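Appendix B: complex inputs.
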Amino acid sequence: MSNADSVGAPLSAEEVAALVGGRAEGGAGLQIRGVNDLAHAGPHEAAFVAAGRDLQGRDLGRGAAGGVRATRAGLLLAADGVDTLGRACVRVAQPALAAARLAQHFHPGPPRYAPGVHPAAVVEPGAALGSGVSVGPQCVVRAGARLGDGVVLSAGVCVGERCEIGAGSYLHPGVVLYPGVRIGRGCTIHANSVIGSDGFGYIWDGSRHYKVPQLGTVEIGDECEIGAGVCIDRGTFAPTRLGRGCVVDNQVQIGHNCELGDFVVLCGHVGLAGSTRIGDGSVFGAGAASAGHVTIGKGVRIGAWSAVAEDIPDGAVVAGAPAWDLREELRARALWRQMVKRERDKRRR
Amino acid sequence: MSNADSVGAPLSAEEVAALVGGRAEGGAGLQIRGVNDLAHAGPHEAAFVAAGRDLQGRDLGRGAAGGVRATRAGLLLAADGVDTLGRACVRVAQPALAAARLAQHFHPGPPRYAPGVHPAAVVEPGAALGSGVSVGPQCVVRAGARLGDGVVLSAGVCVGERCEIGAGSYLHPGVVLYPGVRIGRGCTIHANSVIGSDGFGYIWDGSRHYKVPQLGTVEIGDECEIGAGVCIDRGTFAPTRLGRGCVVDNQVQIGHNCELGDFVVLCGHVGLAGSTRIGDGSVFGAGAASAGHVTIGKGVRIGAWSAVAEDIPDGAVVAGAPAWDLREELRARALWRQMVKRERDKRRR
Amino acid sequence: MSNADSVGAPLSAEEVAALVGGRAEGGAGLQIRGVNDLAHAGPHEAAFVAAGRDLQGRDLGRGAAGGVRATRAGLLLAADGVDTLGRACVRVAQPALAAARLAQHFHPGPPRYAPGVHPAAVVEPGAALGSGVSVGPQCVVRAGARLGDGVVLSAGVCVGERCEIGAGSYLHPGVVLYPGVRIGRGCTIHANSVIGSDGFGYIWDGSRHYKVPQLGTVEIGDECEIGAGVCIDRGTFAPTRLGRGCVVDNQVQIGHNCELGDFVVLCGHVGLAGSTRIGDGSVFGAGAASAGHVTIGKGVRIGAWSAVAEDIPDGAVVAGAPAWDLREELRARALWRQMVKRERDKRRR
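Resulting structure:
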């Protein structure tokens, strides 16, 4: 099955090599029209042979040989030294990255709509739209909002009063921005995410939970991608902040007053309690969480389903609940299973 | 309190018995107009007496006798051998199933709207609507979408370019389908769920997280029910797939390239990392999660809040984080509590 | 940086003291125009000096002295006995509560829209709107719905058939109420939350998961605040219920037939399985969960990421998975870390 949406011009093996910064081996006369995985690629498609390790340290190359033998791909993207069984290939240091670059050449990206305001959209007086902005059907843009050049609001997007959205950002259907939220340039926000809802702040006054007004807002840096169904709360006083180039997966919850550096990665279902600080380039695995008011350094890796309850220094690799050094956690798990086994054997005797 | 929405014709005890495949004992002259639970049912309602065990193995019949004594229900649905204190009843092998069948008789189901396109909806040229389709207010149907006969888009639903929705499917308010998504026949998707958003794929290129275009789509089989606030990501190359008859609870996250068989059950807050494969009829308890690239067999049961980190064979019953055999997990928990108690007692001495 | 949205009249130190029920020390001639945190407050703003302990028992006053030294705030809100280095201050028993009260004076609250039905909204015949109701653009209000005086539907809100919303309640964009849902007076529901979707009830009938119709609804008491992206399922027969004054954080999932008392607190990502009962004033920490059919007493505190698998008595403080007494859990964690360390040291020898 080929990927039907391909739109970029077909490429020769040499052109593929040039595009991805690699070196062609064979493949003269090939016309590559798309990219796919080894199992699904056809004779006019490129496919990459996995190599290296993923975030969890798993060897991505496991079983690559079998995939290479069985594939019908016309062109392989492979690292030096990987046996490609004599097939046409492009040698490149990061084959998966090369496949992504190639996919960006062929892939049309999300739908591009004609600039202008759809007749079924509502743009209040006093909103400012840059050139080439597209406001789709059923959208609402409130007074005082400012949308930079080329911004796309797909459909059913609500942009609150005085929000600012940087040039080239793309908001998918159902996204809600509360008043005053600031989104950088070149960001993508996926469907039904909510940015800038009130932080969860109450104080028991003796008879009820008295609401602490949430006066801050949310600021998201340039070139961030926010998944679907994400909630990012506004700060109590100062804004909740994400640096540039952060990537946030679906259904993540970011509490009020969190401050994320640049290039932070939050996988699906991550929950950050209020006032969590995260340094540049740190990664939260799926379902991981932080307690409030903790500071996590730069380049930290936090395993899936871990719970960070105290500060973590730069570069640490942690796991567990509460999270500690990953090696301690793995040792602990192994020890525990041994103990349970010993106990069981003792009873059987 | 009776359930006010009942619409089906009243039934005699004999008619109830026929409808549910049971045997009436007493109840001559009764006119049953609805179904309710033991605690709330009135004299014109049927109520079932729980029996058997739930997914967690708990005895549902616990305390049934007290419920039978106190109920004002006109007719009981009960298994053979259950003491119904001489009240009118219908004997049936699966009382809860019988109650569900009876409820389907009386319950009007979700609102049925007049066929046609609401004046406040936007259906782009080039979308194809089958007969009897209802497109409600504030909906958007993009070019190239195809809606089968009798499809209902309740309100505020966004259907992307080239999506296909099978006959009789019902989409509740705020559902978003990204371009190219395919939904089977007779499916229900609850409010604000997002199907087909981009999978979470990035590769660090030395200066930023380079986005891996997500070229696949999502395919959902016939007669699936998807809860509210669910996110199902599109595949990187091949589609993310759900078989037929799957039921997915609220706020579940299904990563890109997952492949689910038929009749899979995912309870609330489940998170499936990318490329998880699940065999027919397997059940994930609430909050359970999978690591990426694991294969779970058929008929597997995974306890609530478990984390599946490796492949699971057909028919296994597992729990824990990481998940292992349920009996091992229960033994481990008991052992652990004993150890903590021993340690505490030792210190006290 | 001052909080630009301030709207309340400026206040003298004496007026601040009167408003928060405190005692002014110094500050003659001050004109306070807003409230902020110590780090961001300017000379015309008040800021509070944290004191006491948060829900997790952490000392909020840690580091307060440094904050007082560095702040540019014109007026401090501080408890008796806290050293404010001679700065103008208002002494008050609960400084954070005082700051919240002051913020409510200065903060405009969520946008207030002109009463009436926006031309881009759809209100079906047979819906009843009280005086001063505002139905914003892209909203849908179905037949038979009843909105009390002063209700605000911000934008893109869907209110199902026969819903009732009490006076003064505010629904943010994208909220969906299924048919028959009842919301009390003075409630706030944040964006994209779903109230009243079908509970997750199926019975295997030998060939498929037979759907149990969900005939109940949801009833939410007065003055509740529901976060963004929350899902609350309707009951199977009787309604799912929340008492008055409950506060529910983002992305919480409440299963069918749950019954919550008054002033219950559910932090982010909490998941309640069906038929969970919770007494007045109990608190679930972030990510905590309950198994179905458990009863949790009044005033119970459940630690973050805990899993409640059995009944909990009034006033208990629990943590862990499964949850037990917090002190046992802390003792267990400490013991476990010691054991792992001992084992590691043994191997090294």
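Chain C has two domains: 13-106, 116-327.
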